[in-house]
Design a protein that fits this description.
Among the domains are: about 5-140, HUPs (Rossmann fold); about 330-480, DNA Cyclobutane Dipyrimidine Photolyase, subunit A, domain 3 (Orthogonal Bundle). About 45% of the residues lie in helices and about 5% in strands. The chain contains 19 helices and 5 strands. Helix 2 (about 60-75) links the parallel strand 2 (about 35-40) and strand 3. Helix 10 (about 285-305) packs across helix 16 (about 395-405) and helix 15 packs antiparallel against helix 16 (about 395-405). It is globular and about 85 Å long. Bound molecules: flavin-adenine dinucleotide. Flavin-adenine dinucleotide (FAD) binds next to helix 8, helix 10, helix 14 and helix 16.
Length: about 500
C-alpha cells in the first residue's frame, strides 16, 4: 500500500443489497477501508406533508429492520459489517469524518425526489467543508438515466407508451456488477452500532394477519429466495400476465415491490434472470410483461426527475387549502374500510392489516377516493405512504397523480366502476368474504351490492345495513348497470335504490 490508507464511507439508503451495488463495488477497488453505513433518519419517522400520518408505518418499518439486519449479516459473512446510526446522514457522516480524521471519499446512490436530494446537498456541503471527495452513482432503475434516448430529461415523454417504445428500441440495460466474496474491512475504531427496535422508532410490531398476501420478510436473502421461487422453482413467471390481476394470495404477482423499494433486489438482476429464464425455459407474453411493469417503475422515477417538487403539489379539482369536515368524514370511512362499498372496503382493510394491496385494488380505491368521493388525491397518497410495505416515493406519487387524472394518463377522466371491477376480478366475492367477514352470509356476487338486496335476503345473511355493515357513503349511476349481472343473483330489491 503506498501513501495514506484511503477510507470510504458508503452511505446506503434504498440500496440495501450486496449484489449489483455500485457504491460498494466502487469502494472495494478505490479504498483500503470501507464503511457501509445505514442511518435511521429521524425525518423518516415524522408526519406526512399535508395530513400528518406517520411517514413510516409498522409494516414497512418491520420490513426495513429485517432488511437492515439481513444486510449486516451478509456483509459480516464477507468480512465487513453494516454500521448503523440513528441520525440525519449529513450529521452522521460529518461526525464520522471528524472522528476518523482521514476519510477520503463518501459514496452513495443518487435518488430522484426532493427530500432525498436535500440530503445529498447536505452531504456535498459537509464533504466540501472537510475536503472529502463525493462519489455518486445512478442505479435505482432498469435503464440507466444516462442511457435514455431523451436528453435533457425535460424531453421525457408525458405518455408512458411513448417512453416505453423509445426505450425498448433505443436503449440497453447495463449488466449487473459482481461483488467480491471478501470485502474491505471497516476502518479501525468504528463502532458497529445497534439496530434500533420498532419501539425506538415509535411503532409497535404489527400482528401478522393470517390472511396476509405478504408473509415474507425484508432483506436481500429473502428477495433472492422469492425470485428463485417465482421463476425457477414454480415457473409462476410464465403465467404472470394471466394471473397479475389477482387479489388473493402470494402467487398471482411477483411481490418484488417491497424489496425493490428498499433496493434489496436490483431491477437489472431481475432483468438478467428473465432473459436467462427465456433462454433456458420459455419466453412468452408473461415473461415480457414483468419487464413491462418494471418499466412503469422506471418511468415514474424519470417523471420525478423531470417534474421535481411538482409531483407532490399538483392540485386536482378536489384539492382544497383546508379540507371540509365532510371530506374528513368521508376520508375516515375510506381509510378504515367502512364506505359501505364492499370491494373498496375489502381492499382498504387488507392494506391496514398487512401493508399490501394488489395493483388492481390500488387502482380502484384510488379512483374511488378521487372520482367517486371527490377527495384530494394527496389524502390517499399520504395514507398509502404511511401504510404500504412497498412504498416508493416515485411509484406512489406517480400512480396517484395518474389515478387522479392529473398525471401521465392520456385518457381523460378515467373512472373505475367499482361494481363492474368487483364482478370482473372477484366474481364470486371470495376476496370480499376474506376481508369483510360481516358480509360472509351473502352468497355469490350479491356480496358486491348489499344495498340492492331486499330485507329478507339481508336478514337471512345476518346483515343489517347501517348496523352490522354501513350503507354506501356514495353510489354512482353507472353502477346500476351491473347490479343484476353477477354469477349468482338472488333477492334483489331492484335497481338504483340508493
Ligand atoms: P407485479 O405485478 O409483480 O409487478 C412487478 C413490479 O413492477 C412491481 O414489483 C413494481 O416494482 C413494478 N410495477 C408494477 N406496476 C407498477 C406501477 N403501476 N407503477 C410502478 N411500478 C409498477 N408500487 C410501488 O412499488 N410502490 C408504491 O408506493 C406504489 N404505490 C401505488 C399507488 C397506486 C395508487 C397505484 C395504483 C399503484 C401503486 N404501485 C406502487 C404500483 C403497483 O400497484 C405495485 O408495484 C404492485 O402492486 C406491487 O406488487 P408486485 O410486486 O407483486 O407487482
Amino acid at each position: 500500500m503506498s501513501g495514506a490508507a484511503r477510507t470510504a464511507i458508503c452511505l446506503l439508503r434504498c440500496d440495501l443489497r450486496t449484489h449489483d451495488n455500485q457504491v460498494l463495488h466502487w469502494a472495494q477497488s478505490n479504498a483500503d477501508f470501507v464503511i457501509p453505513l445505514y442511518c435511521f433518519d429521524p425525518r423518516h419517522y415524522l408526519g406526512t406533508h399535508c395530513y400528518g400520518f406517520p411517514k413510516t408505518g409498522p409494516h414497512r418499518l418491520r420490513f426495513l429492520l429485517e432488511s437492515v439486519k439481513d444486510l449486516r449479516e451478509t456483509l459480516k459473512k464477507k468480512g465487513s459489517t453494516l454500521v448503523v446510526r440513528k441520525g440525519k446522514p449529513e450529521d452522521v457522516v460529518r461526525d464520522l469524518i471528524t472522528q476518523l480524521g482521514s476519510v477520503s471519499a463518501v459514496a452513495f446512490h443518487e435518488e430522484a425526489t426532493q427530500e432525498e436530494l436535500d440530503v445529498e446537498k447536505g452531504l456535498c456541503q459537509v464533504c466540501s467543508q472537510h475536503g472529502v471527495k463525493i462519489q455518486t452513482f445512478w442505479a435505482s432503475t432498469l435503464y440507466h438515466r444516462d442511457d435514455l434516448p431523451f436528453r435533457p430529461i425535460a424531453r421525457l415523454p408525458d405518455v408512458y407508451t411513448h417512453f416505453r417504445k423509445a426505450v425498448e428500441s433505443g436503449a440497453k440495460v447495463r449488466p449487473t456488477l459482481c461483488m467480491a466474496d471478501q470485502l474491505k474491512p471497516l476502518a479501525p475504531g468504528v463502532e458497529e452500532g445497534c439496530i434500533p427496535t420498532m419501539e425506538d422508532l415509535g411503532q409497535k410490531d404489527p400482528v401478522t394477519d393470517p390472511r396476509t398476501a405478504f408473509p415474507c420478510s425484508g432483506g436481500e436473502t429473502q428477495a433472492l429466495t422469492r425470485l428463485q421461487y417465482y421463476f425457477w422453482d414454480t415457473n409462476l413467471v410464465a403465467s404472470y400476465k394471466e394471473t397479475r390481476n389477482g387479489l388473493v394470495g402470494m402467487d398471482y404477482s411477483t411481490k418484488f415491490a417491497p424489496w425493490l423499494a428498499l433496493g434489496c433486489i436490483s431491477p437489472r438482476y431481475i432483468y438478467e434472470q428473465i432473459r436467462k429464464y427465456e433462454k433456458e425455459r420459455t419466453a412468452n407474453q408473461s415473461t415480457y410483461w414483468v419487464l413491462f411493469e418494471l418499466l412503469w417503475r422506471d418511468y415514474f422515477r424519470f417523471v420525478a426527475l423531470k417534474y421535481g417538487k411538482r409531483i407532490f403539489s399538483l392540485r386536482g379539482l378536489q384539492s382544497k387549502e383546508v379540507p371540509w369536515k365532510k371530506d374528513l368524514q368521508l376520508f375516515d370511512c375510506w381509510k378504515e374500510g367502512k364506505t359501505g362499498v364492499p370491494f373498496v372496503d375489502a381492499n382498504m382493510r387488507e392494506l391496514a392489516a398487512t401493508g399490501f394491496m394488489s395493483n388492481r385494488g390500488r387502482q380502484n380505491v384510488a379512483s374511488f377516493l378521487t372520482k367517486d368521493l371527490g377527495l384530494d388525491w394527496r389524502m390517499g397518497a399520504e395514507w398509502f405512504e404511511y401504510l404500504l410495505v412497498d412504498y416508493d416515493v416515485c411509484s406512489n406519487y406517480g400512480n396517484w397523480l395518474y389515478s387522479a387524472g392529473i398525471g401521465n394518463d392520456p385518457r381523460d377522466n378515467r373512472k373505475f366502476n367499482m361494481i363492474k371491477q368487483g364482478l370482473d376480478y372477484d366474481g364470486n366475492g371470495d376476496y370480499i368474504r376474506l376481508w369483510v367477514p360481516e358480509l360472509q352470509g351473502i352468497k355469490g356476487a350479491d356480496i358486491h351490492t348489499p344495498w340492492a338486496l331486499n330485507s329478507a335476503a339481508l336478514s337471512q345473511a345476518g346483515v343489517t345495513l347501517g348496523e352490522t355493515y354501513p350503507q354506501p357513503v356514495v353510489t354512482a349511476p353507472e353502477w346500476s348497470r351491473h347490479i343484476n349481472q353477477g354469477p349468482v343473483s338472488t333477492g334483489k330489491a331492484g335497481m338504483g335504490l340508493v
